[in-house]
Amino acid sequence: MNSFLFSTPTETLDYIGCHSDLSFIIFAGIPLIKSLSTTVGENVILCSTSGEFSPKGYKDNVITGFSYDSEITEIVEIMYPPAKSLNKLKKSYEKVKNNPNAFTLLLCDGLAAMEESIITTFYFADPNFKIIGGSAGDNLKFEKTLIYIGKKEVHSVAVFFDMKKRTQLIKENIYIPSGKKLLVTDADPIKRTVKTFNNNLATVEYAKMLGIKEVDLPNHFKNNPLGKVSKDKVYIASPMKVNPDKSIVFYCQILPNTFVEVLQPANYNSVMKETVKSAVFKPSFVLSINCILRSLMFLDKNLWGNVSSNLLSLCENQTGFVSYGEQFYQNHFNQTMVLLLVE
């Protein structure tokens, strides 16, 4: 697996043309993905982003991604609804399930709110089977995200990698519970909308818990998302937007009659050092997927340079993208970084 970084579609297509024996996964913004989609062959998967991570660290409006040996992978188009792809997913999984180094890379439509349905479709897989994924972005326009297999636009895609080298998945969470909890008293999980917390309008109660004016609530989403706590692990649910009726739409499902924690930022440098230390081997390749709200916080606080240098200390052969949601094993959440390490 080799990462790359280009500025233009022409450079990218020249590189692909010189390595016709390989396959490629490419991350870029909407205009660049549209341009590439008219020319690339079936050995190329394209995914739109809200920012890119490259061998030179965090970038915006560039083309990055990685090449790989076509013979070690099997690509499955995930249709809408995902259950239509169940048999193909199961057949591909059966071929790699006994390989502890195998993994599946999911690239999901970032605006269809179907990630939980896609993850559920993997009900047949062992819980320890490695799944890493990200939801395609469109630079916060919230209009349309793009995924292609060659020139064919698809809803989502799963790429099964039958790796021989050791692999490891890592999840990084830079938020911790603040000690404040909210009870979800009315919610629509399908629409990912919370209507009330503590039997009060969602925006009113959320703002009250933070001690801020209700009108300022959207400005605090980056620093104070909500967390679903399970077995001492925090899974972040990021707010997307406030509706006119004072309900809140999230990037992932929140179930009614459950408690959620109001989160606050942890010490990023300490967390990042622990993330790097958690690598059980020296990787030759790293794929990172960072949530859009993490990226916005890093931009606000001028932290992306520090983040990039810490990640690149693992190895320089890196790629990745800024996503609208992250998948890790059989979970979908937000405001998280997930990493794939290959020895």
TrEMBL record:
Alphabetical list of Pfam families matching this protein: FIST, FIST_C
InterPro entries membership: FIST_C (IPR019494), FIST_domain_N (IPR013702)
Organism superkingdom: Bacteria
Domain FIST C-domain: 202-330
FIST domain location: 21-201
Record-given protein name: FIST domain-containing protein
